[in-house]
Write the structure tokens for this entry.
Amino acid sequence: MSVTLITGAAQGLGRSLALTQAQTATHHIDLVLLDKDQAALNRLYDDIVGLEQHQVEPALFPMDLSGAEPRHFQQLSQALTDLGGVDNVWLNAAELPAFTPIAHFDEAQWLQLIQTNLTANFYLLKALLPALNEKADIVAILDRQPGKSPAYYGAYGVAKAGLAQLIATVAAEHTDRNWHFYQAWLPPFQSNTRSRQFPSENPATLPHHEQMAEQLMAALQSEQSPDWWVPLQAPEQTD
């Protein structure tokens, strides 16, 4: 038996991660699915139940990260503890608005995006530490594009860089535990968000988010190690 938490689970990559894990489960899994879209979560729940994969038990946890406070994440942590603790965490939820230069970026939108894409992950990781089981895997879904071409990514690009540092910091602070932390610097893939940002791009030239979810699961299970998959190793000790 294991417990998996997926944030941003209702659509796109998060939905595909949930369905892939449900379809390939070989033991009992409680899938805790977090998203702000209750209707989309309900549809995902129905699709997972419709697989008739009796080893998988989906549990919905509606939460809007843009307005979530530490107490909401404490409630989530308690719910996961009640399930027996969490074994796998996918930090997938993210919000990417229209491309905007810093000179024209709305201040309120900046704060909201930093909250959703970075601060909420800090609240979540801090609250989850007591709920992680003896062996656990934590994956931060990152984006290599803002690092290669940072212009116009605004608060999203800044937050993704911050999330990379956050997960590296938490990993370095827990080298005495059997917890494994990973950065997944994903290449471009087909999604509704991608289509909105690049309307002239032919989506057929990109892998679908279902394929990306399969690759992520394979990387976590050590079946393959693509160049965008980065296990965070303990830092070398120096005198």
About this structure: The helical segments are 12-24, 38-50, 70-82, 107-128, 145-148, 154-172, 192-197, 209-220. Residues 77 and 130 are 8 Å apart (CA to CA). The chain has a mean pLDDT of 93. The two ends are 42 Å apart (CA to CA).
